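Quick one - inputs below.
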Amino acid sequence: MAFSVNFPLFSIVLCLLCAVVSSLLPSKAARAVSIALCAALAAGAACLASYGVSVGKATEYLMGHYPHPWGNELRFGVLEPLLVSVFAVVMLLCLIGGKRYLAADLDPEKSNLYYVMCDLVLVSLTALSYTNDLFTGYVFIEICTIASCGILMIRQLGRTTLASVRYMIFSLIGSGLFLLGLILLYAVTGHLLMPNVKESVAALWAEGRYRTVLLMSMALITVGLGVKSGLFPFHFWMPDTYGYATPSSGGILSGLVSKGYILLLIRIVYGAFGTDIFYRSGISNVLFVFGACGVIVGSISAAREKDVSRMVAYSSAAQIGYIYLGIGLSPGMGVLASLFHILTHALTKPLLFLSAAELASCAGSRQRAVWRGAGHINRVAGFAFSVGAFSMIGIPLTMGFVSKYRFALAAFERPLLMIPTLIVLAVSTVLNGLYFIRVVVAIYLPPERRTDRVRITDHPAYAVCAIAFTAMNLAAGIAALPIVRLLESSLTLL
Amino acid sequence: MKRKKSIKERLREWDADAFDLTERTAGPMHPAPAAPEEEKPEEPPAPERETRLGSRALRILYSVLAALFGTVMLSFLLATASELPPYGAAENPVHNAVSERYIRDGMRETGAVNIVAGVILDYRAFDTLGESHVLFTALTAVLILLLGEGVHRESTGQIRMQQDRIVTNTASVLTPIIILFGVYGILTGHLGPGGGFSGGSIVGAGLILHSVAFGYDRLGRYLNIKTFRIVCFAALAFYSLSKCYSFFCGANGLHTVFSPGVPGRILSAGLILPLNIAVGVVVACTMYGLFSVFQRGKI
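Output:
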């Protein structure tokens, strides 16, 4: 057993320690700690992913001296460390890129607490990815809920406070449903560790006992995680939450936090329910329908929105819809497309939020109407926003194209759902094009008045982050096949 | 009395404050966007041109649908509950090899007479590690929300603790007993009912009673935000590091230096006693901290 299998344990403990230490440190030091932590976590997870690829099987890691079903466990193959390392990189770039806004939005007296919360979000994402125990999942869902409210409401405006109250209510409903589902599952299986739950569920399903309870618990867990990640019709907290948070938080919340819950759902479906039973139960069809509705409704709401940050936030609702649509389609190809879209969205949305904030500060307002020429004033932000927008529309060479292509491919596996999926894809692509192209065209129109150009060196932190995000997006969009293959092989290890 | 502002008016004011992007105010101020719907977040936003009659019809439809949905969900859940295994029956699925080993071997393997302590601090210690950080997270979130508002509140005189003789006298008798009982609960958590969570909350309640009766100044001399942070840091860091060591040893098949000892002794059960103390400290701090922050905006 290589030493790198200990990295998940070390990264979780390191995050917790950093969070606690940061509460004592001044803000600058806390920021440095958070950034270093993200970098360390990304490096460790990348090592672990390469170990997973070389071994070709998943590792079960005891948290203590007792194997399952008695003690807590972690479990990781390739997918989990891969996503953790992407999450850590994205968080790192968010923290770097939004530096200017963080300085303006945070009260200096408590700005170190922001980084405490970021560390806690990171630890919960890590633990949600690695855990092999359903109750551990719930514990870190709790941490994630509170910490994500924290990074939202630290910008203390009326709007953000209102948004965080709403976000908290929805999020707690989600946690409550998840917990209820977990209790039902425990009552009929008597286990909390995923491998044992899977065994018992399969046995009970074959015998036909406790059918209602099993169905209900699957539905509650799925819906609970769906509510928390903003699945239609529970996406109404999104525009305020993502749109009014400080841009770094907007990026973290939309790009990472919702993905953590979705990843947990995928792992539960594969590891605890078993794909056979989950896809035979009909819950996947419900997910498909709500995902498809979410895509359309989110796109329409985004098209009606005049405030660009809120528009980008509504587009998140559509992207989450895509992910659930993929999960609902089929276990192999559908989930693969969803996983790729998780990566796409995690790498694109933070870029869009940060660039929108940058352009808004050029234009003087977040309203689309006054953005004319902003792309000429701030060229980096303009270019980055355009790449992000193209990626969300699904124009070739960007990651968005690959994920839409994978969704279409997955649709052909389900003859009955093929036509609806293709229609949804087509309609939403047109709608995405409608509202994103409108903004991209506006920022490249000749400006109405002469304004000084913003140079790269004016905001170096943002420029670094924008260039990194753009480069990753284009690289992954052009050389998508290795990534898809990697995800495909990692799915077999779940 | 001032007229109460409607939610729409307040939202408009917030927007004016919030999105006046001060870095470059050359651009025109945007008009206040339409306030999002407040009462019915699950409905698509109603267009502004809608008449009052239309929105009332929508609201009635909405409440009918909500009632219908609630009834359907209720019946589903009742159906589920009726199928659940009967409470406490011997052949229930939860009575399996898991609980059997906890009950049969728990004392030998963990050294804790109290099985619950053995389960939460040894068999499933990772959950508890997360759980104790939930408290820390909650306290930090409340600090983010409320810290710094204390000055404002005290100056408006909204909150003034009243010193009442009955409360003071009762508290002077009860506080030491309560705190002592809490400490006893923490220290003997591995031997009987008690433990970090329950003992810590009793200590926290004692501290709260003391501060209610005698004011914050006496406690504040040694319980200020700095001590809080240091104490929380020490407890949680100890918890994380010691458990990291123990998890690492467990996963790699190494021996730990902590042994279960002789069950029943006060110094036994390996890490459980120190962890109970750490958890108890964190819980007491969080309880008192939450009360204090909500009451006056600082610790």
